[in-house]
What we know:
By secondary structure, this protein is α/β, with parallel strands linked by helices. It is 46% helix and 13% strand. The strands form 2 sheets. Strands 4-1-5-6 form a 4-stranded parallel sheet, sandwiched between helices. Helix 2 (31-46) packs across helix 9. It is globular and about 45 Å long. The chain starts with 8 loop residues before the first strand and ends in a 6-residue tail after the last helix.
Amino acid sequence: MSFEIMSNYRFFFSYSHLDHKNAQYGRECNYLEDFFEELCKHVSSNTPGEPAESVAYRDQDRIQIGDYWSPNIIEGLKHSRVLVSMLSSTYLASESCGREFQSFLQRFYLLQQGSFNPNASPRIIPVFWGNSDNSLYDLDSDMTQLIKRLQLRQEGVPEGYPTTGLRQYYYLGKKTSCSQLGLLLADRIVERVPFF
């Protein structure tokens, strides 16, 4: 599936490239990739007329420390309604991932000050790719509380999530739990109610 730049996206998929590399199984298969593609299909099925290839933006090039963001990343961040952050200790240690997260926080603060279009209110949905305790271990308490407040908690969340982390469901072959979380996440992505 190829994903091109568009003027508006349902979500920006933010993940650590190292997590992506470590999610490889088989010669051309990847758990993180599987989740992204399934999530796009779920979101597309909830938004008639929007094909799966156009509902999300994600960067597939590895950004090095000190690199400038490409115009595509900047446009993806500006024109995505929701940030889906695939949290892990690697994600939270990544400067680039932190900048993506901060970009959405900045949009929210601008909205609070009346400097941002309320019809395009940004939302952040953290998804624990890794074990939640390990992922949050080195974070300061304010950031930990923010992430916990934004976490999916509704009925239907797979048993053991977020403590287990989505990656572990894939490794254990629990595809039903992965799909269940993807469906819930897709429903939240297409909602218009802000999370903050």
